[in-house]
Amino acid sequence: xxxxxxxxxxxxxxxxxxxxxxxxxxxxxxxxxxxxxxxxxxxxxxxxxxxxxxxxxxxxxxxxxxxxxxxx
Length: 72
Description:
Strand content: 5-15%
Structural class: mainly alpha
Distance between the termini: 9 Å
């Protein structure tokens, strides 16, 4: 949660197919109805974060991820 909240360019939305970059925590959003065993079978842990890359400048996105990792 700290990492996701530290991101500045990524929107915290579960909206696939958008032109902007998004970040979500699948275990508590898109896959929250799955059992712990089903999550593990799908390769999703509590620490899994999904980034959906949009049309922003790649360098800006990498800088945003870097600063969020250091702030988290």
